[in-house]
Design brief:
By secondary structure, the chain is of the alpha/beta class. It is built from four helices and eleven strands. Pfam families: ABC_trans_aux.
């Protein structure tokens, strides 16, 4: 009987296991589906200007029903429920904070972009409050609504250099969790892209001077 090379044994073992049992029986049935929203863009941008300094994106404020990793859907204007068996990867405020950090970080117009300053104080800080981050039942589908109030603070003199209100909506053809999450993803990409462009302009960064790296 010919000998099986040692390097082939793990491959044969994995093939044998996958043929005998589904993956769920090996890893255990998940108790929920975890969803993550994608960044607005991934392309690094080079800006032909000296960096303006450090930028901190504070965790957005929100009311308690949104300060959760559960996915909210409203059957009516006065009722809030959550999609069963589905979660965001983080709470809603941390999810938005992460998306904003990723989008601002694409631009080398900053020395540092993060949740906290590198030193004792940042040069600019973005503070915000989430008003809406939910789906609303509509006919046989749903409408996702996002709205955020935000301000850019110059820390040297605690001056508010810009304020804005940002809203996005997108439709889901059904109330299936996957369809609703895809509508959230489209809406959040647009929202984050708009907030980043507004923030860059408030900090006097001319994006016409920025090119893909």
């Amino acid at each position: 009987m010919p000998r099986i090379p040692k390097i082939a044994l793990p491959v044969l073992l994995m093939t044998s296991l996958s043929a005998c049992a589904p993956l769920s029986s090996l890893l255990g049935e998940p108790d929920r589906n975890i969803f993550e929203l994608m960044p607005a863009a991934d392309t690094p941008m080079h800006c032909r200007a000296r960096p303006v300094g450090d930028l901190v994106i504070e965790e957005p404020k929100s009311r308690s029903v949104l300060d959760t990793d559960r996915i909210m859907i409203r059957p009516s204007a006065l009722q809030a429920e959550y999609l069963p068996g589905a979660r965001w990867g983080d709470t809603v405020p941390v999810t938005l904070q992460t998306l904003l950090i990723r989008d601002f970080s694409r631009y080398d117009a900053f020395r540092h972009v993060g949740r906290a300053p590198v030193g004792t104080m940042s040069d600019y800080t973005v503070i915000s409050e989430i008003n809406d981050f939910n789906a609303e039942a509509s006919g046989g589908g749903a409408v996702v609504r996002l709205s955020v109030n935000a301000s850019v603070i110059r820390e040297a003199d605690a001056r508010v250099v810009a304020q804005g209100r940002f809203t996005r909506a997108d439709t889901s053809p059904s109330t299936r969790t996957e369809d609703i999450v895809e509508a959230f993803d489209r809406a959040s990409r647009g929202l984050v892209a708009e907030m980043t462009a507004w923030g860059l302009a408030a900090m006097q960064i001319n994006t016409q001077n920025c090119r893909p790296r």
